[in-house]
Design a protein that fits this description.
Helices cover about 55% and strands about 5% of the residues. The protein is an all-alpha fold. It has a three-stranded antiparallel sheet. It has a two-stranded antiparallel sheet with strand order 2-3. The two termini are about 35 Å apart.
Length: about 375
């Protein structure tokens, strides 16, 4: 498959994000501002900042900042159809605006969360609201990026407070600490008790990152860091799942950033380990990937999550090499990113139900991958000056 030219891909990314901005109400009077989904919006914030730099157009930075407030206004509160009202944290209105992430953030799913007396239905649970830990960590990363872009400390404080709220996902009832995958909106009970494969890894990196930018939150964050370290101890993060590998690559960037300021890194999140585990998964996935497989049997956001990680890591390889991370093997997988972006840029593939039924998340992750090829700094706080 012919790769998309770099300038062409930036134009496509701009078009995708312009449509997203209009469709979800961030621009003009059309669209629905309440149409929020935490995972999509987290990547949208970073992608909009990336576009602002790549295109030298500050309008995209303004959209990113506006999106943060809109997410907090909608997902930091109970659903409109919930008998409970106000901020999830229970804080009064004015105080809630000062600490919008203190109670966590809703996913933004279509259906209300499962009630305590309702039977579990695995398929239906995918459509029900609640809180996902791995979505919380994505928003922490987005907030840290906003703090870096704006210089405003409140975003780092909100990231720290959200990380602290995420600590309620840790299950301390057994002989060994573990985590819940999904919890109720008010974080009072687990909805899916199994643990996400990379949740403790992302929790540890987010807690360490939040501590770096909000050191005054140390009393709340340091106990969490100890808990996450315990859960992470001895873990192998390797996976053959496209989205999982992409997330692992982005976490490699975050861990590399932390390594510039920390004298010692927990073994479980050392950049060398994360890259080695990513590489193991990449080798397996590359053998399985069917470049011309039908769009009806593929999910764009999962594949584009992988290409995003590849693009971001590749774009920062010189900075990472200066930090001692050897990425010689990475470049052999860049054609995989080119193939994924090229496939999902085709109009006929964007007419498939697998694209249209998940339009926002597909469009944003494809745009994110393309933007990372131009401005990878939007997905990691490693500075050009380092």
């Amino acid at each position: 498959m012919m790769a998309i030219g770099k300038s062409e891909s930036l134009g496509k990314a701009r078009g995708l994000m312009d449509d997203f901005v209009r469709r979800t109400g961030l621009e003009g009077n059309k669209g629905d501002l309440a149409q929020r989904y935490l995972w999509t919006d987290a990547f949208a914030v970073q992608t909009l900042f990336g576009l602002a730099h790549a295109l030298e157009d500050d309008a995209y930075s303004k959209y990113a900042v506006k999106l943060v407030d809109v997410v907090h206004e909608n997902l930091g509160r109970y659903r409109p159809d919930d008998v409970r009202k106000g901020w999830i944290s229970g804080l009064p209105e004015a105080e809630g605006w000062k600490h919008p992430t203190a109670g966590g953030l809703r996913i933004g799913k279509r259906l209300p969360e499962r009630k305590a007396d309702e039977p579990f239905d695995e398929q239906l649970e995918w459509e029900r609201d609640g809180q996902y830990f791995h979505y919380i960590t994505r928003w922490v990363n987005a907030l840290l990026q906003v703090q870096q872009e704006t210089g405003e400390q409140r975003y780092a404080d909100w990231a720290a407070e959200l990380t602290q709220a995420g600590g309620r996902f840790i299950d301390k009832s057994g002989s060994r600490l573990r985590m819940y995958w999904k919890m109720s909106i008010d974080l009072s009970r687990p909805l899916v008790p199994s643990m996400g494969a990379h949740d403790p890894l992302e929790g540890l990196i987010c807690a360490e990152s939040a501590l770096e930018t909000a050191p005054h939150k140390a009393p709340e964050l340091k106990p969490l860091i100890s808990d996450f370290e315990e859960i992470c101890s001895g873990q192998d993060w390797s996976t053959a799942d496209a989205l999982g590998i992409g997330g692992l690559l982005l976490n490699t960037l975050r861990a590399s950033e932390l390594s510039t300021t920390k004298n010692t890194m927990p073994e479980a999140i050392r950049p060398e380990k994360l890259w080695a585990d990513s590489f193991n998964g990449l080798k397996v996935y590359a053998r399985m990937h069917k470049a011309e497989g039908p769009a009806s049997q593929r999910l764009a956001f999962r594949e584009c999550g992988l290409s995003l990680g590849l693009r971001a890591l590749s774009g920062l390889k010189e900075q990472l090499a200066a930090l001692g991370l050897n990425l010689e093997e990475l470049e052999k997988f860049i054609p995989l990113a080119e193939s994924i972006e090229g496939f999902w840029s085709k109009p006929e593939n964007q007419r498939a139900a697998t694209w249209t039924e998940h339009l926002d998340i597909n469009a944003v992750t494809l745009a994110a991958s393309m933007v990372a090829n131009h401005y990878p700094f939007a997905f990691c706080a490693i500075q050009k000056t380092r």
